[in-house]
Amino acid sequence: MRRFYLFLVGTALLFSCHTTKNIVGANGAVNPYQYNISKKATVANGAVASAHPLASKVGVAVMKNGGNAFDAAVATQLALAVVYPNAGNIGGGGFLVGRRSNGETVALDYRESAPAAASRDMYLDAGGNVIEGRSINGHLAAGVPGTIAGLFETMKYAKLPFAKLIQPAIDLAEKGYVITEREAASLNSLQAELKKYNTTATAFQKGIQWNAGDTLIQTDLANTLKRIRDNGAAGFYEGQTAALIVEEMKRGSGIITLNDLKSYTAKWREPHQFTYKGYTIVGMPMPSSGGTLLHQMMKMIEDKPIATYGYNSPDAVQLMVEAERRAYADRAEYMGDADFYKVPQVQLTDDAYLKERMKDYRPGIAGSSQITKPGLKKVSEQTTHLSVIDKDGNCVSVTTTLNNSYGSKTVVGGAGFFLNDEMDDFSAKPGVPNLYGAVGGEANAIAPGKRMLSSMAPTVVLQNGKPFLVVGTPGGTTIPTSVFQTVVDIVDFGLSTEDAVYGPKFHHQWLPDEVFVEKSFPTAVRSALQKMGYTVTERGSIGRTEVIKVLPNGSFEAVADNRGDDDAEGY
Ligand code: GLY
């Protein structure tokens, strides 16, 4: 038995082991048995902020060894698929927004799609009611995974061979890594669901409690990653891995077929771009609502003197809440996969429309979602984000997800990875809230091959065409509001990167008509909002924001959220 010593040093956890040497990352730069958590890195050459220290360290090791930000983003995601099974994945999907060193901006959609056998009412009973949990847990909740297709598309802009980028993940899965206290608690709380939603034993079950310092080994996952290394995307979408997925589906009444897997493609999209006070915001277009919501919210407040109201002042929070309310009302009605539904994109982001939308905003008086409706005239939060930048001016903002924590809770037998429960992001029935309490309608109804509407908002902010911020967060429907607040906090209120990331967040999504706030949200502001007429509801933490800011001297300031084991590294 290995022996581990756990020290608490400020916010850093330090694991110590005397018997192992560094085994992963280029030149063995990363030791999965002895690592610390670093919340901030100010560096000159390259930086990564992600949900897990080992993943951030793998990304930096890749850049140190000749890779660029795209290489690092691929390697970091693969490492997260091993060390952050809550949301890092190969059984889910994601979105990438990037800025290349030549100034080109890019957006990649590797969102899951509905299997060919999916149908509009597949989660309803004979009486037309939503069957609780069916789109969230187990085999039927899974969409066709997009992550591996997305990683191979990302390779278009990478410099190193894929085999080098995936090797750290293979090592981490095969030889294991030491888990933190938070991870042990998370795995312990998952055990009952693992039992319920799996047809074979998983690496995450061991009969006794997980403890900080235990080593988690994932042999099946290592073998799956080796098949991907050796056969490319076909190592996932065809051959043995595909067969294992389909066998798993058959054992658990799922509907993903070999043909669904083989025909999946990731899609390059035109980034959703707009300006805010001289900055260019580069965001994700449909099927994520992220870029459009950010555009709507930022334009709705742009002509208001928000900086004079003050950071987290009742007036500033109210203004932002009212912008959030209006944008999310439009999300519910008009947004969905634009390949399947005609999203009125131009009208939704028209300056005059957004100005008109705020006409009934009354400072000091709560708005109402009974009155604010979708505005056009008729015509789980377990996701994970990583931000990467390199010395050549490439930057990559990636948000990926399984949807709920550990997705559908179903691990593909013999292949070792969790399947997503992304089908819940569709609207199972108009007006019935999903996992995030969000409602939708026709635009986001289920159809074979369609991609479910997302809120993920990987974002790059440019100043004079050069990278200024690389930002994003998990958090389901709270993602766009957290990114909105983080950017406004830095641009308008002049907050430090740490204060913008760590500061209390709030969220309004039209329905329910409530302002959700974190525990640390100031009491005086809560009372002021209540006096205005708002219902203020305290909830758990909102998001885990990862920001890289380019400082005036050109160096990079990477800050990882303190709401989790998130970690910022650089060199
Ligand atoms: N599954 C969360 C999202 O895509 O918004």
List the helices and strands and how they pair.
Blueprint (H helix, E strand, L loop, with lengths): L4 E5 L2 E5 L23 E4 L2 E5 L2 H12 L4 H15 L9 E7 L5 E6 L36 H8 L7 H14 L1 E2 L2 H17 L17 E2 L2 H13 L2 H4 L1 H13 L6 H5 L4 E3 L2 E5 L2 E5 L6 H13 L3 H4 L4 H21 L10 H4 L2 H7 L24 E9 L4 E9 L55 E5 L2 E7 L5 H14 L5 H6 L3 E2 L7 E3 L5 H10 L3 E3 L7 E5 L5 E5 L6 E4 L1
Helix pairs in contact: 1-2, 2-4, 4-6, 10-12, 10-15
The site of glycine has 9 residues, from strand 13.
Structure commentary:
GO terms for molecular function: glutathione hydrolase activity; leukotriene C4 gamma-glutamyl transferase activity. One of its GO terms (biological process) is glutathione biosynthetic process. Belongs to the gamma-glutamyltransferase family. Pathway: Sulfur metabolism; glutathione metabolism. Keywords: Acyltransferase, Glutathione biosynthesis, Hydrolase, Signal, Transferase, Zymogen. This protein is α+β, with helices and mostly antiparallel strands and about 575 residues long. It folds into 2 domains: about 5-270 and about 385-445, no CATH class; about 270-380 and about 455-570, 4-Layer Sandwich (Glutamine Phosphoribosylpyrophosphate, subunit 1, domain 1). It has 17 helices and 21 strands. Strands 3-20-19-15-14-11-10 form a 7-stranded antiparallel sheet. It has a 7-stranded antiparallel sheet with strand order 9-6-5-13-12-4-21, covered by helices on one side. Helix 4 (about 160-175) runs antiparallel to helix 6, helix 10 (about 290-300) packs across helix 12 and helix 10 crosses helix 15 (about 480-490). The longest helix has 21 residues, at about 315-335. It is globular and about 60 Å long. Residues about 1-20 have low confidence and may be disordered. Bound molecules: glycine (GLY). The site of glycine has 9 residues, from strand 13. Glycine binds next to strand 13.
